[in-house]
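2024-03-11 09:14:02 INFO worker-7 job=invfold-0412 stage=load source=structure_tokens
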């Protein structure tokens, strides 16, 4: 490492903690998000940039999940939704998908073992390998009585699929009650569909963060994010730091929320 790089790293290590602490103190308690959704994007590109294989990037990304949850707790976030795998990702080659699923399983199991957070899988679990789905359900069962922050683990998740599943669940429920289509057409409204989403009973996300420089939702929480604020960060997910998170929270706190108007 060059002398300049060493000096720059030293300055960063000394100044950033003080800078971050000042940012935390300046955050207005009454303007902080209750629910934060995070699109953990850029693992593959990060791995390519550092000269490693894709699995290395996914492992580095998984290692950054626990620090993120610590940062969320620090500022009082109550619900976090982590998008780890989309339904589109399930079409990747077995060579990439199988190691990724294993990494996700291990990461979720590690979070569950700590019993600090209540884990809730969201997504089309029926599309996942049975072993993966079983481990996600087990993590939810093992943390069901934990009183900590609620963490939605979105695996095999797609916004369009979620809405389709919600409508299907709604129709099935009313069919069992004997409700006719004409009656249902008169009854159905936004709240009926919301009550059948994967995140039913939870507050909608106040803030959605996407890493890697991409400025699109890609199907993440399509229904729930209608009134969310968005923050796009250039850093790939494995490089996402506490200071990046605090900047996102600060940007959110400084906005005047218009709730879709």
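2024-03-11 09:14:09 INFO worker-7 stage=emit residues=261
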């Amino acid at each position: 490492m060059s002398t300049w790089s060493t000096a720059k790293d030293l300055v960063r290590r000394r100044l950033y903690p003080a800078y971050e602490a000042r940012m935390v103190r300046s955050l207005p308690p009454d303007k902080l998000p209750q629910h934060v959704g995070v699109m953990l994007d850029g693992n593959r590109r990060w791995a390519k940039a550092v000269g490693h294989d894709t699995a290395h990037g996914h492992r580095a990304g998984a290692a950054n999940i626990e620090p993120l949850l610590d940062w969320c707790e620090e500022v009082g976030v109550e619900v976090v939704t982590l998008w780890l795998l989309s339904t589109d990702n399930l079409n990747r080659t077995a060579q990439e998908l199988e190691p990724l699923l294993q990494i996700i399983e291990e990461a979720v199991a590690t979070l569950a073992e700590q019993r600090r957070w209540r884990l809730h899988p969201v997504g089309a679990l029926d599309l996942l390998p049975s072993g993966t789905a079983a481990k996600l359900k087990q993590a939810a069962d093992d943390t069901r009585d934990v009183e900590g922050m609620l963490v939605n683990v979105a695996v095999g998740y797609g916004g369009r699929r979620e809405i389709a599943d919600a409508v299907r669940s709604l129709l099935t429920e009313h069919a069992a009650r004997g409700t006719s289509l004409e009656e249902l057409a008169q009854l159905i409204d936004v709240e009926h569909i919301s009550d059948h989403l994967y995140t039913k009973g939870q507050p909608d996300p106040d803030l959605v963060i996407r890493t890697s420089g991409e400025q699109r939702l890609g199907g993440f929480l399509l229904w729930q994010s209608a009134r969310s604020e968005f923050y796009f960060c250039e850093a790939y997910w494995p490089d996402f730091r506490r200071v990046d998170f605090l900047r996102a929270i600060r940007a959110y706190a400084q906005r005047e929320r218009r709730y879709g108007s």
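2024-03-11 09:14:09 INFO worker-7 stage=report msg="The chain is about 50% helix and 15% strand."
2024-03-11 09:14:10 INFO worker-7 job finished
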